[in-house]
Specification:
The complex is a heterodimer of chains A (about 130) and B (about 375). With about 130 residues, chain A is mainly β. Chain A is about 5% helix and about 40% strand. Chain A has a single domain, classed as OB fold (Dihydrolipoamide Acetyltransferase, E2P). Chain A is built from one helix and eight strands, in the order αββββββββ. With about 375 residues, chain B is an alpha/beta fold. Classes of the chains: A mainly beta (about 130), B alpha/beta (about 375). At the A-B interface, strand 2, strand 4, strand 5 and strand 6 of A face helix 4, helix 5 and strand 5 of B.
Chain lengths: ~130, ~375
Amino acid sequence: MSYDKIPAPIVNPESKPFWDAAAEGRFLIRRCPACGEAHFWPRTICPLCHKADTEWEESPGEGTIYTWTVMRKSPRGPFALAYLELDEGPRVYVQFRPEDNDDLAIGKRAKIMFHPVKDDQPMMFAKLI
Amino acid sequence: MSIKGVASIVGIYEHPLRKAPDTSTPQLHYECARGALADAGLTFEDVDGYFCAGDAPSVMAMADYMGLTNLTYFNGTDIGGASYIAHLNEAAAAIAMGRCKIVLVTLAGRPRSEKPAPRPAGPEAGWELPYGGSPPNIYALAAHRHMYEYGTTSEQLAWIKVAASHHAQYNEHAMLRDVVTVEEVLESPMIADPLHRLDCCVVSEGGGAFIVTTPEIAKSLGKPDVRLQGAAQAIKGQGGGKIDLTYSGAVHTGPKAMEEAGVKPSDFKYASIYDSFTITVLMQLEDCGFCEKGKGGAFVSDGNLISGQGKLAFNTDGGGLCNNHPVNRGGLTKVLEAVRQLRGEAHPAVQVPDCHLAFVTGIGGTLAVRRGAASAVLERIA
């Protein structure tokens, strides 16, 4: 798998602050002031309680692998998808960096990272820690 | 108010092609419609309700192409491959409200011959699309978690393919007619851990159609009365990150459809279970109550899904795993085989004796991200 074959993330007005922070290597989630829950991917109105507009919060992006798979048949070459359960709660659908393909297991600790993809745009990945 | 008993399936047709390089997609829809209407003894002029999903260009385009000029009701609900099971529910509701009397539902497409039209990007696209997730690896995420939580094994999943292959050997149109063993499934190449190539359905072209109408019209046509006795639909998403991959949306629809029909899982000797992958079947069996949550692996083992051998015959046409999964959407063919079983028209080698009750369930979209679910109970009325 090579990063420059991965298309750039699609950015809209609601997600722009996330990708602006990503360009600085910072990982943002949103939390609801009404129910106190964090969620992912970010939505302006809380998808869990619907009661309030949510607020950006910087996260270390650390958590444990909830599930994983390595796609063996792909023109991109083998690549790993997973759900990373953040310490804040939400399970994040994410691709692991290729170096970790052979070492993934449910329950292992991992962390969100950013890496440039097509057009030098930063895209979110995960790595074992 | 209930849709119990208000609608019957009177016409079915499955396109014999599995590869259609010389036929257009609208033409396939039209051929399927013609086949189902002929089976029912009806004409295109009789159709006043038309339903199709994302495999069709659009309701308007298809209605115009097929010359459907008497439509008073139409619907384009798209929950992926399970759309056509939801259409049963919606057609019955429309018939109950007097909006239409004769509903045509079609599915068709050519994923081997032409590139599918790109879908409009949803709000999740920014975070998900670049990764190139596709059905095999996304369903694999669910399979891995199920194994972790419940000890489900690849051998147990393989039994689902084995059962489908036992049925497909009798279907002259099936893409894969060779009976396979558990070992052969496990020895097939790994596609996306833990799913092997033989854990996956076929990619096929063609399609199918069915006709839903009132029981009174069904009687007047002299067709076997295959009555819809219960139906339900639901959507399950990633829930802002509170996602649990060990169950599907069928956890809501299966029990609800059975409750409406006044039946329970143990009443069924036949079920059509959406089978894009082996894990898809296992999870829905659990979700619909055919066995306890987490015990699906034991339930499907040792031929329990093979007609004439096990307790619950499933997908006796060979299903999506071996026969046909047109346009990567297996919901419509699930309805068709249930109707064949209830009419006594399944292949004699796989016909369930005195089959008067059939369960149909499907999930569509992508299992580990967001998907729709739909279930239905069909009964042969003597």
